[in-house]
Every structure is written in structure tokens, then in C-alpha cells.
Amino acid sequence: xxxxxxxxxxxxxxxxxxxxxxxxxxxxxxxxxxxxxxxxxxxxxxxxxxxxxxxxxxxxxxxxxxxxxxxxxxxxxxxxxxxxxxxxxxxxxxxxxxxxxxxxxxxxxxxxxxxxxxxxxxxxxxxxxxxxxxxxxxxxxxxxxxxxxxxxxxxxxxxxxxxxxxxxxxxxxxxxxxxxxxxxxxxxxxxxxxxxxxxxxxxxxxxxxxxxxxxxxxxxxxxxxxxxxxxxxxxxxxxxxxxxxxxxxxxxxxxxxxxx
Length: 260
Known about the structure:
- By secondary structure, the chain is α/β, with parallel strands linked by helices.
- The protein has eight helices and seven strands.
- The radius of gyration is 18 Å and the shape is globular.
- The termini are far apart.
């Protein structure tokens, strides 16, 4: 039996991500919270990193000792260093990162302000860069302890195609797609994998008031929006050793929208 097969069988015999320590940004609600729940269910210890303190603490309290909340503004390099240090202090070296935190601003290009554009870029794009940079030393320590590292960057179908009136969001999500590939090339020799996930229309606080998202979802092959857990299941797969030969790739969960 190969070492890879042994690793896979070992993961499947218990939780799929047992022994992994994972940071999930934007983990207090929506897709992030669904990821936290699924990872805990499958044996991981998870740090909920978010600016939404009350919601993050409530989720950590609900899920128990395998979770911890840390405040994190993903645009702060110092904040990232503190979050990784807190994760290590609570659970040990970090072996998984889900760069999920994101925002959207709706405006046509003609009236879009520079400040609003830059804010979306800072959170959605710069935040991913800072996260990957900050977690790398900890992932090296995890690797030395025999736990392989995996980073999942949450992009969007907006990182594959374009949508009007959300220029900053589309620009940032295309950037995340490219950044993922560069990081995969740089980190791969150290056994650290990096992939991007591209959700389609998903029920969340971000899309709750978007009649357009609901309407567009009705016209795709799977004529509905995704439940956040359906995206979380894909993230779980990419953080687990089941996806051990996947890196630098896009994983699309969009109900068939981009097939049209």
C-alpha cells in the first residue's frame, strides 16, 4: 500500500480532517459559518476569524472546545500575525486556511467612488494575500509534525465571468483566482496545496436582499440557489487529504450557471 493510500485511508477511518487546525475568515455567518460547522463535525479544530465579534463568539460557544473566536480585520497585516499566533496558542500549528471573508459594493462604474472600489479590493484581494503570507510559517511547522497544509481561497463565479455594477467584486475575485495559482506554484514544493472555490448564487446574508440573484438562479440547470453547506462540503474536501493531488485549480459549485 502506498503512503498516499495509507494517508487517505487513515483520514477516512476517523474524521476527514482530524488533527488539522484551520482558520476560517468571515467564519461567523454564511458560507464561513457552514465551513466551521462541517470542519468541526469532521474532526478539525477551527478558529473563527471575523470582525463580527458577537456572532463569532456565539458560534464558538455553540460548537464547544474544538473552536475559538479571534477578532480579525483581514486587511491588517498585524491582525493576521496575531490571529495565527492565537490559533497556535489554542490548538497548535495551522494546517488549513479558508480565505472566505469578502464584501460587495453595488454601483455602476460611472458613479463608483475610488474609496468604495479600494475597500472591496482591500478586503477581498489584499486580505487573501496577507492571509496566505501570514499562515505559511505555521503551515511549515505543521508539515514538520506530519500534517499537510491546504489553503482554500473563496473566489466566485465572478472570478470566471463578469457581472455588471460590481466592478470591485469581479476584479478582486479574478485576482484571487490568479493569486491562488501563483501561491500553488510557490508553496507546492513544500507540500502545501492552494485551490480556489467558485460558488454561484448561494443563500447568505450578502445575497439575502438580492432579487436579481434569486431570479438568475432560477434559470440555471439546477434551478435554485445553493445552501451554504453545499459550498462547505467542497471546502471540506479540499482541506482533507482526499484532495491530496489537487492544487492550483478552480473548483466550481454554481448549479451549472457558467455552463449556459
